[in-house]
């Protein structure tokens, strides 16, 4: 446990040092501003309240999980593995008295924490902008729905992160990993359209599954089924990524 804590803190320090969190925060902030401006223009031009204050975070979430979040996760994962192997800094990391499983778990945990922090940041600023521009439409139920949507989105983003970690330990070049990830992301989207009946098994198919949680009528069977699928896929990807990391020479 002590070794894991030290490795985890070290990974967080390395992420902060590269200032990718700041870059992600700036991009997220700009996305919220653009989203709010678009919503304001639509509301004014139509003369109707199309989007309420608590619906803005859901619109922003849908935009982020299909664009900026996957890109940011990919960049961090590449830095954690390909970047360190290519710069030979992985030797320093693995010279510490801890197992490779500890280091792999610490890296994934650090990436997961970054995902959570990004979700919290986007939720807060999107709610603030929504309240600022449409305070009369704020409801407690709306806020709770937005909070629930962001919480349950952690699971599909963690699944996608594990896919990228596996690729980062399978493919040597960081640029190659990036392009393969983008191609897979697009390919999975196409496969979702072609094979919609079995699309739930794809790593990117459930990025918007939060819609199931905030709908007026909950489909508990579907929620449980998708949860089991995503957890099962996460376990397999984690195991595969760790095995590749374990076998990788320095």
In round numbers, the mean pLDDT is: 85
Taken in chain order, the helices and strands follow as HHHHHHHHHHH
User: Helicity, in percent?
Assistant: over 70%
Q: What is the β-strand count?
A: 0
What's the tally of helices?
A: 11
Segments where pLDDT lies below 50 for 5+ residues?
none
Shape estimate: globular
Keywords:
single chain, 250 residues, mainly alpha
Overview of this protein structure:
The chain is mainly alpha-helical and 250 residues long. The protein contains eleven helices and no strands. Helix 2 (20-46) runs parallel beside helix 6, helix 4 packs antiparallel against helix 9 and helix 6 packs across helix 8 (154-170). The longest helix is centred in the middle third of the chain and has 34 residues, at 100-133. It is globular, with a radius of gyration of 19 Å.
